[in-house]
Design a protein that fits this description.
By secondary structure, the protein is of the alpha/beta class. It is about 40% helix and about 25% strand. It has a five-stranded mixed β-sheet, with helices on one face. Strands 11-8-12-7-13 form a five-stranded mixed β-sheet. Helix 5 links the parallel strand 3 and strand 4. Helix 1 packs across helix 3, helix 1 packs across helix 4 and helix 5 crosses helix 10. It is elongated.
């Protein structure tokens, strides 16, 4: 029996919890699935399912074999796709997930340019601030900040993640007192809240001197939604900690002004870098690497760290 087909039928039966439902999904007969699973069990010398008249349940050996079977099937599909791309050029679908704020800041333009350069590739992009298990959810790629040391994943640095303190020109005109560590309490603030970020304050560096700045008391708004805070910063309601990747276009357009330029703001839990993260079994995927290269080149062109 074709091993690929047998593995596919085993995985379908495990995921559906039923030979009949899996058979319907695959366009096979239940007896064909039973035969395929029986062939695997004889080959392994172990039962993969506990069977009853009403349902099937994976055995301990079945649970172990399921993980391996999924990886084998995925790698075979990946290899077939890579061979097809060698023969016919870059094509197929690419599924990626990224933080919500990445979308309007740079990802929408990156996707538009990438689709133009690779007209035979289809993009599926999900923007969410929730943590996503790439392997379990079937994503090819994720764009993230912060540490990424989970097993089975490769993390590649694609850009810097410096933090700027920014406000609108209108706010600065109404509040001309320069922002310094000594004048923090004289300014209005817009504060981003996140479980990974400390609420006590933040660190800054200047001339090799590290200074801790307590959170200010004059907070006009706090929120776990960065878009909401950025909109209010643009409306002139206070000073905001702004990631460099989010601020660049707005600074160039004059809609934001950077404050405390001589200080380096500690990025805290979000780390110093933007990362492209992908499953290790996708290390040779041409379309994944092509997208990462395109994005990295875009960020290198648009983010001048010396501004």
């Amino acid at each position: 029996m074709d091993k690929f087909s047998a593995l596919s039928m085993f995985v379908a039966a495990a995921e559906q919890g039923s030979f009949s439902r899996a058979a319907e999904l695959l366009g096979k007969t239940p007896s064909a699935l039973t035969k395929a699973v029986g062939h695997l069990e004889r080959e392994l010398g172990a039962a993969l399912f506990e069977r009853s008249t009403r349902r099937i349940v994976l055995t301990e050996a079945g649970r172990l074999y399921l993980d391996t079977a999924r990886q084998v099937l995925q790698r075979l599909r990946d290899a077939g796709e890579e061979i097809d791309q060698l023969q016919n050029g870059m094509q197929g679908s690419l599924r990626l997930t990224a933080a919500l704020a990445f979308g309007p800041a740079f990802l929408e333009r990156v996707c538009a340019g990438f689709l133009t350069e690779y007209p035979q590739i289809r993009l599926h992009v999900d923007l969410t601030d929730d943590f996503v298990d790439l392997v379990e959810a079937g994503y090819d790629l994720a764009l993230r900040e912060g540490p990424s040391d989970l097993p089975g994943l490769i993390a590649r640095v694609i850009g810097r993640n410096r933090i700027f303190l920014c406000a609108s020109p209108e706010y600065v005109a109404r509040n001309p007192l320069p922002l310094t560590p000594q004048t923090i309490e004289e300014h209005d603030w817009l504060m981003y809240t996140h479980p990974a970020l400390g609420r006590e304050g933040w660190w800054v560096d200047r001339d090799n001197l590290r200074i801790f700045l307590p959170h200010p008391k004059r907070v006009r708004m706090e929120s776990d939604n960065y878009h909401l805070l950025l909109a209010n910063a643009l409306a002139g309601h206070g000073v905001l900690h702004t990631p460099q990747w989010s601020a660049m276009d707005l600074l160039d357009e004059g809609r934001l002004v950077r404050l405390m330029i001589d200080y380096r703001i500690d990025p805290d839990a979000f780390g110093d870098n933007i990362l492209a993260v992908y499953p290790s079994h996708r290390r040779a995927s041409g379309k994944v690497l092509a997208f990462i290269d395109y994005l990295q080149n875009y960020l290198a062109r648009t983010m001048d760290v010396d501004r």
